[in-house]
Amino acid sequence: MNELLLQTIVDKLNKVDEGIRHMNSGVVQMPDYIEQLKNVDTSLEQIKEDVAGMPERLKFPTAAVYALSQNLEINNDLLKRPPVQEIRHHHHVRAGLIVSACLFLLVVLVTVWLFNMRSLLQAYKAGDIKYRYIQLQAGKPLRPFLSTIDSLYHVHPQAFRDSVVQWEEERQRIAAMLHEAREKEEEAIWLRNKAGKIR
Description:
The protein is mainly alpha-helical. The protein contains 6 helices and no strands. The protein has helices at about 1-25, 35-55, 60-80, 95-135, 140-155, 155-199. The radius of gyration is 64 Å and the shape is elongated.
């Protein structure tokens, strides 16, 4: 009987083993969540530390409020005093317009200067041609005189210029006096004629 009992127990255990194997083969393998659980644990620790430091961060900022109140007092003081209204009229002339006007004036001045220099050069050329003509056409008595004048000019050009200018001024003064005398003579003749008609 012991044997029979033993045989029955062994059979029963084999059936239980077979049932367990059958159950293990039918159950899907459970995934390993250990890493995810560790990450969750770390996150929970971090949240716990953040919550522990929360009262320090939520503390009322007294220094900032004090600075803000001082700025508000300054602004209120400025708003109580009305600003001085000063009207200034600014007329803005564009720089391009000024530069254009300056360049235009420069072009006009250069043109006038060139025209004057051209006229002066033509006068010098005309004087030179006239002098050369006098030298070529002059008779024997005039050539030594022209030679003497050239020598005088080359020895003391400034003194020669001054004497010529003085001589011209003297001739103009004499011409003006002669013109005035002629006018007075004409006036005297007119007065005589007028007086003759009155008699």
